[in-house]
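User: Please go through the entry that follows and flag anything odd:
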Amino acid sequence: MGEDSDLDYRYSQGVLTSFDVDVVHVAEPHLDMLLGTKGAAPYQRVLASSIFVRNLRRNKISLVQTLWNESKSEEGRMTRIARRILDKATDAFIVFDASVNSPNPKRTAVVPHAHFGDRFVGYPRRTKISGRVACLAHGYLPLAAKGLLGISRVTDADVTLRLAGAATKNLSNAITSAVAERPTRVSARLERLSDAALVQEITTAELVVLPRLETLEDLQMVFFALSMDRPVLTVRSPSLNALSASVGEGWLHLSESAITARDVDSALAASRQVSRTPSPNLAGRDLSTIRNQYETIFRRVTRRDTSLTG
């Protein structure tokens, strides 16, 4: 994770099968991948959770969870049972800010989300296009992006909508139709974006719009944009209220509900009128600082020192 670290890291995108580690760290949205329960029935998730916890205990492995539960859907009884099994076995919870609820506050540490400025050093940037509003995804565009297509008809005349990222068939068809109908107002790049392409798309935008933050990847896009000095418009939440206050005026614009043409026009107008700092305040969010905070937690849980608030 860093040249000065004596910790060895292994990254996995599947079920844990090697038990020669001291700590397993998982972000909440990726639990199904770790358990092998994507698409499984709720009772199978309970069984998989029980087996997983038993293997951790047998091999004296600590469990750390990073929680991001802005829009958690209603859960059934069996799913709640599976969650309780995992939460009880978790040695430390990590949250991005104090507004995120944790099952065990005494075992919880606040570690801010890192910015991505260091990641994109050296990538060529492009000139900002006045009025360009971009909805972007490193992977797949959210289905909620479809709702932005209609607002391109009624935003101010100088506003153009740009959509970039992979898309499902239905969303792709809707976007393609909008581009054909309003080619001077809507444009698209419907493919998975490389890091270089992502930098190009963000830096040509005057405003990055995220219609809904449903996944951790959506939240990362907020930090991608802010790391490249582009303001963001998205839907309000307690976490984003805190982030908006910390990054400074004019950088993070929050809508009370689904984003409308008025929200877009207002965010652009506010961004142009506010005397913003040259860059948002992302102090304390550099990768080195965040890495050190995670490493401190990993070392504490291996010593079974789990009272993180004391």
Summary: The beta strands are 23-27, 62-67, 92-95, 108-110, 132-140, 160-166, 186-189, 207-209, 232-235, 252-255. DSSP finds ten helices and ten strands in the chain. The mean pLDDT is 91.
